[in-house]
Amino acid sequence: MAGRRAAERWSPAELEVVAGAVLRAPSVHNIQPWRLNFEDGLLVLVERRELELPEHDPHGRDRLMSCGTALANLELAIRVLGHRTYTTEFPDPDRPEVVAAVEPDGPLPPSVTEVNRYSAIKRRHSHRRRFAGRSLTRHQIVDLRDSAAAEGVQTRPILDEIELTMVADRLEFAAEAHQHDRGYQRELALWTVRDEGQRSGVGLAVSARSAGSLPWAGLVRESTALPDREVLKRRLAEETLLAFVTPGDTRHDHLRVGKALQLTWLDAVHEGLVGSVLTQPLHLPEVRAALTEDLELSGSLQALMRFGYPSSAVPHSPRRSIDELLGSGFRVGEAGGDR
Which fold has domain 138-308? Predict the structure, then answer.
């Protein structure tokens, strides 16, 4: 009941804007590991820690990054509704699952950038296929770097031939390791869903899978054709690859890099680009350490992200229902009476 009373300030339409934005955030294996609570006038984002990926994400780093993408969407939704936002990360030491509390803090019209980012939320999806043969300009790359820098996250483009060779080596090693890891393959199969006509749910949609091989496939399956290093290097050279780096490797860093990833992605979508995130190689400690050394990074490497122009339309993955997001028997129609 407390959550319902706290939500009464929102009309059903406003609540649908907020919840809909959170639901459309990207997440590892599309597990959507979050709930949205209403507590004392705050919108509270809760990490669903029971949703585990012990083979892919043994320490929950990707899960928390996923919560960061949801936080970015949550703040944008509140802003387009005309409110300032004041966010506290991990506000309660006794409730580690609470990753952020967002307080609507007075009226303020959204900026043009915020409106553009919000409008890109519905159009954003993971493009795990080959990009169209058109390179990003240096100006576009600088703009993408600036998007993440605003969140205190460093982005490092990987363009140099020597660096691409080193990255290709590390990705090839990681791909072979994952391809022969039976536990990893079972977990990946468990979270892969047939989604013909399916709009509600979780998991990686079969229809969105790449029919090609690395790096476009992203996730390495037993059937993925692994190219040799030279082929892989040429393919990486066709794309714009950014490394996302944080000062440390704490839960705050993981949450913030997720937020930075999402805002960068939304800015890219607004410019007509598509992208996808690569984190699975970085869960092999030796690969993460080697890439950090190879690229001479000054912080913790959290993710690689590929950007380009779309080569084809890619369907969206299924999403949980709004009722499941809000939980506790709460229904959207109950917010704000009959407004």
Answer: NADH Oxidase (3.40.109)
